[in-house]
Inverse folding.
């Protein structure tokens, strides 16, 4: 490698990387161990890296609390507790508290979107996203400017609505961002295969299109696809890997995405395998060295790599499964004790859910339902199923719920749902409040989410696009619809997350309770 570089990026898997600057090194999101009930593994396998050496980094950046970013086991065993943590400014103290519980004691508590200068002339800035739908109450991006003016943006899987905060400080030379799926839809839904494939194809295309919008907005010299995909090594989940030529698979790999980018006219892309080392320069040049001779050939053999990885991980998966059962727990009574008080105070969220949600609990690795429990958000009570109609229905193993209760998990989204170890059915449209509630099973989280929803007001500013007048800000996460909005045949789509509205009525077509203000431009009332 050249001696004139100040920013060097070593790939360490998924969203993790080791950044070398004039101010020292920054280790980001060091995920190695299986996450979400042993469902997700980093792809490619990064377990053979020297994590003790990587763990002696000068700085640690954990973007958020999702377990494919916050790996408690790796942080505990291999990352020096004397490293200085670059801490995003989140509305709750959970990330700091969890890191302190592991022994970390040096923190730079950043203020969102404000630059911090480190020794050696290196500047860093973290943008924290804080809506209840951002990660587990928060997601973030890291901007770094080295002493020579080389700039990188580690967007990981955050979805900022405004990129100008990063661009106002100068050109970005390395842009690292998510491109692949990181959710359970549509795979777990009880839908016909053709419908599931069609929804998956739409989601895959939307993810690519959204990433391209960010790439075009940032206009960086080099694009690094990161933060996905995970791989699935349990036999029950293996079909989720994108190795079956399924256009509806939402987990395309880095090479598939780069080849798509090249077809869009973007050819300055760098894939980071674990151990790849990339250099970027302020003059726009860059280079990369990989631990394999031919990276495209390596990806052609993806299934072989997956199968070998799968074989290595079977004892780990078996050990994880053996820890889940806790038959001593009375699931219904424990849920009543812990969750009903939260339902009582969840005014906005419970109203948004607007009906009962049922969990059908099965025997281990079986379809046999052994208990059905209803969360009634109208009465704010939890009870056994009485045969009534429900809006949402989930089916999962009883032992998974036992384990969540055993460890007092406050975030079922960041555990059960991301595991994909369940099936789901619903009546009507997607309802974000369901997942917001099960993400907020603590008083701190719930009160923050309730306050956030209470503060939301209709956006006062309107815009006119293609003969329609409508509010500028998306009701979902306040994305600027003059940038992310797309209109086809009277339907407005926010390309940030794919939400849709009928412009004639203003009704949201993809979720409940998120209508917009809209009308034909020639019928708009005159401004007073």
């Amino acid at each position: 490698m050249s001696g004139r570089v100040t920013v060097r990026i070593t790939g360490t898997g998924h969203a993790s990387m080791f950044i070398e600057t004039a101010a020292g090194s920054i280790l980001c999101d060091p995920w190695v161990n299986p996450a979400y009930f042993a469902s997700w593994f980093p792809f490619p396998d990064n377990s053979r890296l020297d994590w003790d050496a990587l763990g002696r980094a000068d700085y640690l950046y954990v973007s958020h609390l999702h377990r494919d970013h916050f790996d408690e086991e790796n942080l505990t065993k291999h990352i020096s507790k004397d490293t200085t943590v670059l801490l995003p400014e989140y509305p709750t103290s959970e990330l700091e508290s969890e890191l302190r519980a592991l022994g970390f004691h040096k923190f730079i508590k950043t203020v969102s979107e404000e630059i911090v200068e480190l020794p050696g002339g290196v500047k860093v800035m973290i943008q924290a996203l804080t809506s209840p739908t951002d990660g587990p109450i928060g997601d973030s991006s890291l901007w770094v400017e080295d002493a020579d003016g080389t700039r990188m943006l580690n967007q990981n899987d955050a979805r900022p609505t405004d990129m100008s905060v990063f661009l106002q400080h100068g050109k970005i030379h390395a842009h690292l961002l998510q491109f692949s799926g990181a959710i359970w839809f549509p795979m777990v839904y009880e839908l016909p295969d053709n419908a599931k494939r069609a929804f998956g194809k739409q989601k895959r295309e939307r993810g690519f299109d959204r990433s391209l919008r960010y790439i075009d907005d940032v206009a960086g010299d080099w694009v690094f696809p990161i933060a996905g995909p995970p791989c699935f090594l349990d036999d029950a989940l293996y079909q989720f890997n994108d190795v079956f030529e399924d256009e509806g698979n939402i987990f395309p790999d880095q090479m598939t995405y780069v080849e798509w980018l090249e077809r869009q006219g973007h050819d300055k892309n760098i894939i980071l395998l674990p151990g790849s080392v990339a250099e970027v320069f302020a003059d726009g040049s860059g280079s990369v060295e990989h631990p394999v001779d031919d990276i495209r050939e390596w990806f052609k053999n993806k299934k072989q790599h997956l199968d070998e990885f799968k074989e290595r991980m079977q004892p780990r998966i078996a050990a994880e499964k053996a820890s889940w059962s806790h038959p001593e727990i009375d699931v219904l009574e424990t849920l009543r004790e812990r969750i009903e008080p939260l339902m009582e105070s969840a005014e906005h969220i419970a109203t948004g859910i607007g009906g009962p949600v049922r969990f059908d609990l099965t025997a281990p690795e079986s379809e046999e339902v052994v208990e059905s429990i209803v969360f009634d958000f109208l009465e704010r009570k939890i009870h056994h199923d009485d045969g009534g109609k429900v809006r949402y229905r989930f089916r999962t193993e009883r032992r998974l719920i036992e384990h969540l209760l055993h460890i007092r998990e406050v975030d079922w989204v960041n555990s059960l749902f991301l595991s994909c170890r369940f099936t789901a059915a619903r009546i009507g449209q997607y309802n974000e409040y369901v997942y917001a509630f099960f993400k907020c099973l603590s008083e701190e989280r719930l009160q923050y989410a309730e306050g956030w929803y209470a503060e939301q007001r209709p956006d006062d500013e309107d815009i006119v696009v293609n003969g329609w007048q409508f509010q500028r800000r998306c009701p979902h996460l306040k994305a600027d619809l003059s940038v992310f909005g797309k209109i086809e045949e009277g339907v407005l789509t926010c390309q940030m997350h794919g939400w849709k509205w009928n412009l004639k009525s203003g009704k949201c077509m993809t979720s409940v309770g998120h209508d917009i203000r809209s009308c034909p431009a020639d019928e708009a009332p005159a401004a007073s």
In short: DSSP finds 15 helices and 27 strands in the chain. The first strand starts at residue 7 and ends at 11.
